[in-house]
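Appendix B: a complete holo record

For completeness, this appendix reproduces one full record from the ligand-bound portion of the collection. The bound molecule is flavin-adenine dinucleotide. The inputs are the chain sequence and the ligand SMILES; the output is the full three-dimensional arrangement of the complex, encoded as structure tokens. No fields have been trimmed.
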Amino acid sequence: MTTHIGSSYKQHGLPSPGPRGWDAIVIGSGLGGLTAAALLARHADKRVLVLERHYTAGGFTQTFHRPGYEWDVGVHYVGDVHRPGSVLRRAFDHLTDGALAWADMGEIYDTIVIGDDRYDFLAGREAFRARMKEYFPRQTAAIDRYVERIRATVRTTKRYLAEKTLSPLVGAVASPALRWPALREARRTVADVLREITDDPRLAGVLAGQYGNYGLPPGQASWFMHALMVGHYLSGGGYPVGGASRIAETILPGILGRGGAVMTSAEVEQILVEGGRARGVRLAGGEEVRAPSVISNAGVAVTFGRLLGKDVAAAAGVSPIVAGAPASVAHVSLYVRVNTDTTALDLGRTNRWIFPDHDHDRNVARYFSDPEAPLPLTYLSFPSAKDPDFARRFPGKATIEAIGMAPYAWFERWQDTQWHKRGAEYDALKARLTERLRGAIERESPQVAGAIDHVELSTPLTTQNFVGHPHGEIYGLAHTPERFAARHLRPHTPIAGLYLTGTDISTCGLVGALLGGSLTATVIARRNMLDAILRDEPGVPMSPVAAPAAAAAAQVAP
Ligand SMILES: Cc1cc2nc3c(=O)[nH]c(=O)nc-3n(C[C@H](O)[C@H](O)[C@H](O)COP(=O)(O)OP(=O)(O)OC[C@H]3O[C@@H](n4cnc5c(N)ncnc54)[C@H](O)[C@@H]3O)c2cc1C
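The structure of the chain with flavin-adenine dinucleotide bound, as generated:
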């Protein structure tokens, strides 16, 4: 079974919004776009049209299928959601009317494997701290300093994000005070701060061991990003019951039931700007659709580089390039099918982060200049073991994903070729990467070696093809210190009626996408959506006429 979430534009065309017309158009159905749409529908009575270029809604929360199996693309674990009452759990409960369940990953959410040494990251700040002290008994003061510094940095986030909702005029006055505490942390790299905290490079290498969650080694990544990510997972991780596609599937009814629509295979080609104001969009194929607000979830590079004509972008003074924050890293992902029951395999729910040694910056630099150098980072995830519903849906089976970094430049020369028809050299490069990632799986989980019956590798071109990111990037703009200093990464753009949303205006990850969507809805509706979420305000009731459409949100096709 293949789950296609949303309605196909190719098959059904655009629905009529009724005499009132659309109030807002959202370009892209990633979690950022869906969050903005759902909040505007619920709390501002907006009829929102979401346009998604792919055949299913959800952006990186999509899943894909092969007969009898299913894999996630961009969701392996989310911090805090397994704790009822946590802010993020309340946000998801609110957006999905409680229809999305989360499974706790248990005591150990991540294991850092450096050479032959293993370091478990335990759920709960004090448990984490204590276990780290067991591993590094001479570094107890450094570990305390680290935990406190994470906590202090996380505390600066609220004001930093609140500033993004201010109008440019008000912001100019209030900005410095709101942004400064976070920027003081953001302008340092992870390596800068870790050097202050500890003189033990092995401890520094372990503490930076989740850097794949933001895609930059410690010498390049902003400490602010690191602290937010570590803080996000400190109480452990959760996984969406039923797989990642449940996220979009359970958010859609709240949009459709309030007169909105989510159309797939609906690529936006251009944002229509007339008289200095965004008026709507033109779809590939030529159809135009209009609304007073246009919200782009497609990322800064696509929005300012492609969807606005060059002249319009130049006149508005916007650029797809953010100085010092290039496209984030690209990746290869090996999707593995195992013909044995997940429980019998005893794979465990813990993610593994595998490194050749503790010097992440050197390892990344070496690999990027020599593809045969040791893989600087291999991430293993066991989705079927994390999902308590997997065995019901796919009895007797298991899935594993192995992810590695891969510069887009290695694949660029095939960018104009077609999926599945890129030629022998491309296939050979894929075969080599497949062999290396498969080797990592079989070393870590030898019990699966004889039971693997299918492997399939995605490359940066796959990401480019399916999610539209120009350089196959995982996380939009790179999370460098410069990215956080860039003041224009916010919902407002210089073009009236055009707004940004999603991770490029906050940080990567589902939490970043959800926050990005909330910020944009806050700006457009001129009310604090995080407040509405935390109070779980019911908002506009579902329309009895539109409710049947909501029920058909997920169209399951054979
Ligand atoms: C391999 C991988 C693993 C990850 N693991 C995790 C994890 O474990 N936990 C976690 O929290 N995060 C994880 N992430 C990150 C997380 O998935 C993303 O940061 C987040 O989902 C991005 O949300 P978004 O709304 O900003 O954008 P996206 O999900 O990128 O959505 C943007 C959407 O816009 C659409 N679009 C683009 N151009 C157009 C156009 N012209 N017309 C119409 N539609 C368009 C795209 O097709 C896409 O659907 C992972 C990401 C990857 C790639």
